[in-house]
Design brief:
The structure is a single chain. With 433 residues, the chain is an alpha/beta fold. 33% of the residues lie in helices and 24% in strands. It has a 6-stranded parallel beta sheet with strand order 3-19-15-16-17-18, with helices on both faces. A hairpin with a 5-residue loop joins strand 12 (241-247) and strand 13. The two termini are 36 Å apart. Residues 332-359 form a coiled coil. InterPro entries: LarA-like, LarA-like_C, LarA-like_N, LarA_C, Ni_dep_LarA. One of its GO terms (molecular function) is lactate racemase activity. This is Nickel-dependent lactate racemase.
Amino acid sequence: MKTISMKYGKTKIDVSIPQENLLGIIASNKEIRNKTEEEVVLEALDKPIESNKLREIVNKGDKVCIVISDITRAWQKMNFYLPYIVEELEKADIREEDIIFLCATGTHRKQTKKEHGILLGEKLAKRFQVIDHDCMDKDNLVYLGTTSFGTPVSINKIALECDHIIITGAIVYHDMAGWGGGRKSILPGISSYESIMANHALALNKKLGEGSNLKVRCGNAATNPIHQDMLEAAKLVKPSYLFNVIMDEKGNIIKAVAGDYIKAHEIGRRIVDEIDGVVINEKADLVIASSGGYPKDIDLYQATKTLSNAKEAAKENGTIIILSECVEGVGSDDLQKIIQDYENNVEREKAVRENFTVAKYIGYSMAEAAKSFNIIFVSGIDKSILKNINIPVVSTIDEALEITYKEKGRNLKTYLMPCGANTLPKLTCQVSK
C-alpha cells in the first residue's frame, strides 16, 4: 500500500492506495529553493519587469492605494510581503497617511477587524486600517467605459482618487479566469457587481443548452474571454505597479514578480506553469484530491477549484474524491440554491443565464461535472446539499473508497492530488499541441 497524508481543514487525512494501482502523485514539480522568502521578495522589488522600481514611480505627496486580497486568500502571505512594499514607498517619502489598503473582496463578504489584522500582519495592522471594497455601493463606484465584450466597467472611487494603484496577490491556476493574480485585483476585485457578473457570464456559451464555454478553463489565457475581458478592464484603470507571489505546495513564497501589471503577470504565469503544470501520460479511473487544507477548503465555493483541476486527470465516468472540510459550509446561498432548487441542468443553465452570479455558475458547473464523473465529497457539509446532483457526502476517506470499490471494483488506476487547488494535470497530447 502507498499511504500519503493530505490536508483536510487544519488537520490531515491518511490516504492509502494499493501500490500496483497508483499511476502517480500529481504534485508541483520540485523547485530548488536556494533563496529565503525575504530574498525572493526583495529581488522582485529590486528587479521589476519592464518598469522602474516602485520607489522611482511614486513621488512625495502622492496618494497610493495598495489593493490586497481577502481572507479566503490569506495563504498568499500578504502579511509577509506587504511590509516590504510599504518600505519601498517610504523610501520615496510617501507619508503613512497617504497609503490606503483596499481589500479586493469582489462579491465576497466583508472582513472582520481580526481578519484585517491577519491580512496586514501585526505591525502594519497597528499603523493602517483596511477598507473593504463593496461592489454594491454605487455611490463609491466610478464608471470608466465598456469593454469590447460588452462589460460595463465601474471601479472603486477610493482607488481611482489615488495617484497610484498597486495591485498585489498571487498567481495560481484559476478555473474561470485561467489564472489568478494580476488583472483580477481590478475585475472582479474592486469592480461593481454588474461589472463582475457581466464578465463572469462569459463562462457560458451564447445559446441556452450549449452549457459552459470550454475556453474558460484553468491555464488558458490566449483564448479565454474572461481573462481578455478582465485585461481590458484593467487597462481602463492603468495600475502603476504589480507585485504577485508564487507559492509552493507547502505554502512558501518561492518566486515573485513585480513591475508592469501585464508583462510581469505574463512571466509569472510561465513560472507557475513550470512548477504547477504537471504532465500526465494517461487519465485515471480514480482521482483523490485534497484542496490543500484551510483556507483553501474553507467552504464549498472554494473547494470547486479543486474539482476543476481533478477533472483533468480523470477518465470520462471516472471517480473523483474531493477532500474539503468546508468549515464555513457552502459559502454562498446562490450556489446552494442552483444545486438544490432545480431538477436538471437545462433548468439550472436557464436560471444562471436569467440572473447570472458567479456562485450560481459554480453550482451549475458542479452539476455539469456530476454528469460526466462520479464525484464524492469527504466533507463536513450537510449531505442533503449535494444530493440533488447525485454527489454523495461522507465523513471519511474509507467511506468514499468503500462506495467507489463497490461500484467500480478495486482494480482502479489512481492518481493522488495532495494540493488539488493548485496543481493542473496536463495530458501529454494536450501539452504537445
